[in-house]
Amino acid sequence: MSSKRHLKKISPSGISTGEVMRGSKKMSPHAIMLQSSMDIPTFYNNDAEEALVDKMVWVQEQFGLSDQFFSNLLGVHEKIFREWKARDQVLTTYQRKCLREFWVAMTHILSFLNFRRDLVQTMLEFENDDNIGPTPTPFTPPWVGTSLKSYLESNGIAGIGEVTSWVQGLRYASTF
Fold first, then answer.
1. Residue 27 phi, psi dihedral angles, 5° rounding
2. 123-137 tens-digit pLDDT
3. pTM given for the model
4. Which of 102, 124, 130, 166 is the most exposed place for a label (fewest CB within 10 A)?
């Protein structure tokens, strides 16, 4: 097996004002380097309904999230979610908003974890039953005592907002 890392360079301007060495590669100091084997999907920034379906299918494929997970997240029967993915059913505005916010939360988590699918998968599934002490801190995950996946299923859009705030708080060292 090759130990070669796949790097994707993203540079908004494409202009290099200098070079930095990283290993044996020369890189622009203004380029963002993502250590990943994951390509950024073409629907990433598209807000159309078709793109929302594609985003949810992509998340399911990448992280093993089932139709049952999404039906619990949205509070609908699994059949409705499955038919929506097949473009044979319509979700409510609120349900689509929930999926859009879920997408944003997942992109924040992906970014926070340097686009490492294995770490995202671990984060979704990991349950920490350890006692966190008498007073949680702002950096205590909102899903403590359960898995992130279970927390999202149980708390829907409110849980998505809590998770997004927590990730952003860690990322930018804010106490929300």
1. -140, 150
2. 999 987 665 666 777
3. 0.73
4. 130
Q: Which class for 69: exposed (0-12), middle (13-18), buried (19 or more C-beta within 10 A)?
A: buried
d(CA 132, CA 128): 9
What's the count of helices (H) and strands (E) in the chain, helices before strands?
6, 4
**Which tokens belong to 103?**
């997408």
29-74 pLDDT per residue, tens: 333 334 445 566 677 777 778 899 999 999 999 999 999 999 999 9
CA neighbor of 130 nearest in space, from 119, 142, 148, 146 = 146
Q: Return the bridge partners of 21, or none.
A: 26
The sign of the CA dihedral 26, 13, 54, 147 is positive
Residue 116, token pair as written in the block: 């490492």
